[in-house]
Amino acid sequence: MPTPSSGRSESGDAAVAELPPLLGFTVGITAARRRDELANLLERRGARVVQAPALRIVPLADDGQLLAATRACLAGRLDAVIATTAIGFRGWLEAAEGWGLGGGLRDRLAQARLFTRGPKVTGAVRAAGLTECWSPRSESGAELMTHLLATNLTGLRIAVQLHGEPLPDMVEGLRAAGAEVVEIPVYRWEPPEDLRPVRRMVELIVTGGVSAVTFTSAPAVLSLLGTAREAGRLDETLAALRADVLAACVGPVCAAPLVRLGIPVVTPERYRLGALVRTLADELPRRRVRTVEAAGHVLRVQGTAVIVNGEPVMLAPKTAAVLDALAERPGRVLSRAELLRRTGTAGLTDEHAVEMTVARLRTALGPAGRAVETVIKRGYRLAIA
């Protein structure tokens, strides 16, 4: 990737530093829960957001599996309870109240040893008038399991509050240690009723219409990949995620399905939406920005934006795709056919359309447009002299 020229001015650097870090980048959101909050955080940093919830949450009050699990908890003693998420724990109690089982469930929880996975769920437990006995500082299920397995669990009856997905490592680990486990499937996730946004997201990933995709749960990852498979585009989707589209996951559990497929993933140190957005705002410019000096002008190409001598210029997607291809190796001549191949999936259909797109690029760049040179009978290049 080209590196900044040593001739850049301090005023130009300062102007770039003041711009939103995600300006020009389009980011896909697959989350169902808290997607508006995530979108607002990304938009504040300059990103254009495309939402495609890959899952829907089954209403707890209508969830027969949760009702059956709650009755199983009431049918016998509970020695321990593992609470994994605040929204899930609160939802479980609220659903139990609606079924007329709230009092009995609270009594069972009060008699059990309550383990919480992090500060948010600890707060939810305390707000319910209950007290946790231990919580891992790392907020990780692995540390929680290490703590539990250090004691004799034989014959204990333990309820594990799931968080929208199975926890096979935890559940099977407890059973292997001799415990009886009751799984509590709160806010169970199902495929979305309307698959069109997810299918559109697959299309955007494959065609370069997004620079990054965010995931907040492993089931969302699996749902999107399943949609790609059904559309016959799984291989293309995986190839794009391995190369041009950055996958950002809220934590390692969420990232695991992608990691197993050899897809590079960025995750924050703290498993929070705000931390996820900060990580993306740091990593996406570092990985996807090209900065070159051409014909006496400094061009910083990021998504559909180009910062020309410190001033932002927004480009149409096809125009930005042409500039990005030229900026990949300044001075190298790209034929019209090559530019069509590199950017054709963005909507270019013939070589004349390439010529028109180059003309629009020159106009958009203003005085810096002369950096886009025509090489007669060969194609175009980004001038470096």
Map the helices and strands.
Blueprint: H1 10-18, E1 26-29, H2 35-44, E2 48-51, E3 56-57, H3 64-74, E4 80-83, H4 86-98, H5 102-111, E5 113-116, H6 119-127, H7 141-149, E6 157-161, H8 168-176, E7 180-184, E8 189-190, H9 196-207, E9 212-215, H10 218-230, H11 234-243, E10 246-249, H12 252-260, E11 265-266, H13 273-288, E12 289-294, E13 297-302, E14 305-308, E15 311-314, H14 317-328, H15 336-343, H16 351-365, E16 372-375, E17 379-382
Parallel strand pairs: 1-2, 1-9, 4-5, 4-6, 6-7, 9-10, 10-11
Antiparallel strand pairs: 3-8, 12-13, 13-14, 14-15, 16-17
Helix pairs in contact: 2-13, 4-5, 4-6, 9-10, 9-11, 10-11, 10-12, 14-16, 15-16
State the total count of DSSP E strands: 17
- Please identify the structural class as seen in this structure: alpha/beta
CATH fold category name of the largest domain: Rossmann fold
Number of domains: 3
The chain-level mean pLDDT equals 90
What would CATH call the class of the largest domain?
Answer: Alpha Beta
Low-confidence stretches: 1-9
Main β-sheet, spatial strand arrangement: 2-1-9-10-11
Describe the main β-sheet briefly.
5 strands, parallel
Q: Can you tell me the CATH architecture of the largest domain?
A: 3-Layer(aba) Sandwich
Shape verdict: elongated
| Rg value | 26 Å
Strand content: 15-25%
The number of distinct helices, counting runs of at least 4 residues, comes to 16
Distance between the ends:
18 Å
Percent helix, as a range, is: 40-55%
Pfam family, one: HEM4
EC number: 4.2.1.75
GO molecular function: DNA binding; uroporphyrinogen-III synthase activity
DNA-binding region: 289-384
